[in-house]
Design a protein that fits this description.
Helix content: 25-40%
Number of helices: 15
Bound molecules: succinic acid
Largest sheet: 7 strands, mixed
Low-confidence stretches: none
Length: 493
Amino acid sequence: MHFTFQNSELLPGLNCIDGRWVAAHDERLFPVSDPATGEVFAQVPDSGAADARAALQAAHAAFKTWRKVPAKQRAQIIKRWNDLIVAQIEDLGRLISSEQGKPLAEGKGEVLYAASYVEWFAEEATRADGQIIPAPVPGRRMFALREPVGVIAAVTPWNFPAAMIARKIAPALAAGCTVVCKPAEDTPLTSLALVKLAEQAGVPPGVLNIVTASRERAGEVVDVWLDDARVRKITFTGSTPVGKHLARRSADTLKKLSLELGGNAPFIVFDDADIDAAVDGLMSAKFRNGGQTCVCPNRIYVQDAVHDEFVQKLAARVGALVVGPATDPASQIGPMINARAVDKIERHVQDAVKRGARVVVGGKRLSPEGKAGAYYYAPTVLTHVDAAMQCSCEETFGPIAPVTRFSSEADVIAAANATPFGLAAYFYSRDVRRIWRLADELESGIVGINEGAVAAEAAPFGGVKDSGYGREGSTHGLQEYMHIKYLCQGQLD
Ligand code: SIN
């Protein structure tokens, strides 16, 4: 059972290329289903190379004029986009929950989260100023101007189908770039709805183009954009192997890249921490979107003296979480996105238990294996977890909290950094010197200090090491879509 929508215009079910809503060239379609039930409730274009080329052609042509539109005018259009998104919170929230599975309150929360980036970049558009550089010799004036990089290819993930589109496309439009976008195959509908609203806000034809494609044909679409020198930047959120593939494939045309890739976030609780605050922080960071976020804690380290108290308080909270479909207002944890996701969670828990971990709460699949839909896994706390277990080495992307006991600060810093990833890290402590030591030592793009909810439109979001490079949100998020042109004028004396 999925939701009904008030505004059917938000379900175009077609690609948008050059301002026209069109089927795939060969009219192929693929199904979109509700992960809570497996029910197919929409069909969208299964696009291929011809559609990708048409979208790119449109974006390339539109760049010539969009880059010249005064920043203030671009800002007004983007601000209208924000207003329309906020006005459609009910339908967009339902749409996100229907195709992605998160509880409705979180679906609506994501709409506002997405809008916050759109509003932020509407404002930033007018602040993309340059620099006057003091000349080292007489008779010369020197300037650094910022210019839009050109056509952007945005490849977006399923876990935040509105927010990730917003924080890639809004800065691109604000900078004066044009866009071709391929949303994740699990969640194409929210992206199409956002493009519809952008059109209604006044984004001109060709400036924002979107083509949907199934898992099987996604590579065909993206390869067209990777190989074409007219695409000047790729912005991608997803797995590290795919991110590395994109980096390799775009080397020949030397595209700019923003890669927001996998994480393996440590969450450290020291014995001087406020334990209740640490439990609260872990609940919000770990169980948001059922644990399907790149920044969610994946390895929880708790110091000896507070380990048992922390685990007992955490287990009480986790055991009380309500698992169910987004249509049920009581649900706090929805289904996982698909069968592969729930299989991976099960594999990680079984591996941990086989190697000596103990299940304190949860630890089981809540839906029969092999059944389409109802991809539920019980929120779980594990203890006696060690570094060799799969759940410590890989991102689980599910509602699993694996706890490891530690003794010394030096050991836990070494353990936290002993991963190729470096997206987010969290720690709880009330010792001001320790806080700054950890802030310096953790190899991570984002550090939450006595705070589990770190993301915000005004903050730079992104990682180091195998978690990628580039920043989204904040003033840095706009610069990712611009390059610097240096002007040197002589003969002025
Ligand atoms: C992500 O999981 O990639 C994004 C999470 C966030 O924006 O907080």
